[in-house]
Amino acid sequence: MNRRAWGVMTALALASSAALAQSGETVKIAFIDPLSGLMAGVGQNQLKNFQFFAEKFSKSNVAGVKYEVVAFDNKLSPAETINALKAAADQGIRYVTQGDGSGAALALIDAINKHNERNPGKEVVYLNHSAVDPDLTNSKCSYWHFRLDADTSMKMEALTTFLKDQTDVKKVYLINQNYAHGKQVSAYAKENLKRKRPDIEVVGDDFHPLAQVRDFAPYVAKIKASGADTVITGNWGSDLALLVKAANEAGLTAKFYTYYAGVTGTPTALGANGAGRVFQVAYNHSNMPGETRKLADEFKAKFNDDWYTGSVYHLYAGLSAAFAKAKSTDPVKVAAALEGLKFKSFNGEVEVRAKDHQLQQGLFISAWQKVDAKNSYSVENTGYTFAPLKYFEPYVASTPTSCQLKKPS
Questions:
Q1: pTM, whole model, 2 decimals?
Q2: Which domains can be identified in the chain, with CATH numbers?
Q3: 114/92 Cα distance (integer angstroms)
Q4: pLDDT for 11
């Protein structure tokens, strides 16, 4: 073998070695969400999601790493979230995920910013799977925070683009949880309706405590009395399941346009009464085709539960791609690799927008209906499903950002 050929082979070997420098490493991810209290069902379902896909991606990913999930119960509390972060950091965990509650998300961003500034070489990256307050990628944006869900403004942009063509919608009632996300849903709904359908009358705008109300009958009575033909709500978990239950018991026939009707407990509450009048805006639906459906069926067979938090797949696919791009699992290098990253996920190609770390992706409007030959996935074994009505390309729902990222020196 001549010297030139040897040199070429050596260079190729070194390049291959560098590309998989992190191969075989185990990356721990701290899962910090409610595993007790009224929202425990949501957190427990999502923990199963993270464990399921950790196992899947550990078997095969472009970076050759293994994944391990370490769970912390934050009880939906910002204070408990910070305690969980400290515990995770003490265990040497460098990647954190959270998504249930924007209050906890804001606390996490602030705590991680301070931790990373005070502990160079031990930086932590926050991968937000579901907390959707737009401020998280605007006025409160952080270099260390990456949002994998579509934010409240993006979902409302898609929802109202669909709703503007529904001529039967004339009177809208807004009911939301009394915290950042709920207030944003209300504000963006009014702003978008005024711009796209100024003829629609907003006949109510209620807020209620987060994860505390057990009987929504008084709220439903107000909705009925208002004469609303449509309800728009960003409620999730028990706050939507119990709202829908009260609506069914009171014989409320208004249509519901929701963000989270597919989340634990709500589909069962919907039952047959919700068919044809409950809609959801999301980055997925119950009957995604191909490999995505196979994964959903496998998850159901293993846990007798539904995989609805698609951003869990985003997290593993994006993180694996970033590890390969950075040729490292070091959070500083990986955060830089995530900026502007395009990668293939379950719903097509997605992109981490560099200016604010908000994932850009397509959104679906789906409707609750009885399963049929075309839409056969039975959600929560109810015999009903969310069938797709409309798909919006990423640019349709994309909203501008005011984020001014401060990059570490």
A1: 0.93
A2: 10-150+291-297+306-360 (3.40.50.2300), 153-282+362-397 (3.40.50.2300)
A3: 16
A4: 40
